[in-house]
Structure prediction request, 156 residues.
Amino acid sequence: MNCSDVEKWLSAYMDGELIPARKDAVASHLGSCEACRSRLAEWKAVWQALDALPAAAPSPAFRSRLAARIRESERPPVSERFERFLIPVSAAAVALLGFWIGYIAGGRQASSAGIPDSVSPIASTAYLDSFNSVPTASLGDIYLSLNDAIGSEETP
Ligand SMILES: [Zn+2]
Prediction:
């Protein structure tokens, strides 16, 4: 350990914060280096002088400023306040979008059901055929159509 290493660890050495191996290395260097011993003595004198100073009491203005800063730090950040506002607004927007899509889709379905001009009758009633008890082009459908034909021949 050289002088610059000891200078780096001197404060921790004085405070007793070094691991034993490092503490022993610093002590060993101090035992052989007059410059570092002198520096250690200066630091100890400075710390003793600082310890002798009376403790400064904070002013009442400092206390009120500190309390204001603490209250400010306890307020949620702007992003969090924005999220609290954004979640209900976005939920309402999604609901409105759903209603709007439903309105548009419902209008198209109503208009296509009401105007069969350009659409073939089969295509316009395709949805309704799925609810019939007899599907189109089935044996039941053929039977019923033949029965209607026979019935219409017998009527006159
Ligand atoms: Zn030294």
Q: What stands out?
A: The mean pLDDT is 82. Residues 3, 6, 29, 33, 35-36 surround zinc ion (CB under 6 Å). The radius of gyration is 46 Å. Residues 3-56 form one domain.
